Amino acid sequence: MKKISRLLAFMLLVVTFFGCDSVDNNNAPNAPRNLSVLAIDNGVEIYWDYNSEEDISHYDIYVNSTYDGNYLYIGSTTLNYFFDGDARNGEAYYYAVAAVDVYGNESALSYDVAFAIPRPDDFNEVVYDYLQFPNEAGFSFALQSVVEFNSPYTDFFFENYNGTFWINVWADTDIQDVGVTTDIYDVTSAPSTGWVELQPGENVKYLPAAINHTYVIWSNANHYAKIRISNITNERVVFDWAYQLVEGETLLKKITIPITKDKVIINRK
Fold first, then answer.
1. Cβ proximity of 90 and 245 under 8 Å
2. How far is CA 8 from CA 4, 94, 106, 109, in A?
3. Between 2.60.40.10, 3.30.70.2740, 2.30.110.10, 2.60.40.3080, what CATH number should domain 2-119+253-257 receive?
């Protein structure tokens, strides 16, 4: 079960009416709903729905390394958004949010499974046609840099073959085109099937390079990544990318699973 372990004591708000003593209302708010998270580079964005109660003062945000167990308080906000800038790439974070009313009553923690693993990403990266610029044609997710097209660290490389553009990976790497996307965040996790097959007698797998398409790559070191192409010329391709540091982890963005049964909260203060 989820439990709260507060790191900081929170001062209760005092509400006065016409000089009278404070009014105490013992009805706690409902737990916030529709919690979701967005993993980015060394950070996690957290979203939820505003509560419908009119006496909500703020929201408390908590984090833990598993869904069950002791959740640690990391901050408060009056908005339905919070940014965890202390999250680090390659580590798992489970988030929960509680609503607090003007009398200091705190709700149960949100029931959604909001799980994120921050991972490195970058935008507007460029690699060049390997037939013209072999030393700047490949990209390594592990090194997070441009490399030679035939470097042992190369995860993919770009090719302009007589005016037709290709994204290539070596035989020990997998790739697939997941189609047109709005941005790099649209693809949440790596698929389990649909990888391009190696053709007989070849040592490269390849797909047509297309603007606004996202490609998922499964490296020979068992790490998943994705690239989204934003521009192509005869000499180069421009793309955004994200790379999962955890070996074998298919999660590339976020996961939010609604939980319908109640969770008991203990050790709130």
1. yes
2. 12, 19, 15, 17
3. 2.60.40.10
What tens digit of pLDDT does each residue of 30-86 get?
999 999 998 889 999 999 999 999 999 999 999 999 998 889 999 999 999 999 999
Residues 189 and 252: beta-carbon distance below 8 Å: yes
| Cβ pair 26, 101 in contact under 8 A | no
Domain boundaries, the chain: 2-119+253-257, 121-243
Q: For 125-149, how does the pLDDT look when each residue is reduced to its tens digit (9 = 90+)?
A: 999 999 999 999 999 999 999 999 9
The neighbouring-strand residues paired with 61 are: 75, 97
pTM assigned to the model: 0.75
What is the rounded distance in angstroms from the CA atom of residue 30 to the CA atom of residue 264?
A: 14
178 contacts 218 by C-beta, under 8 angstroms:
no
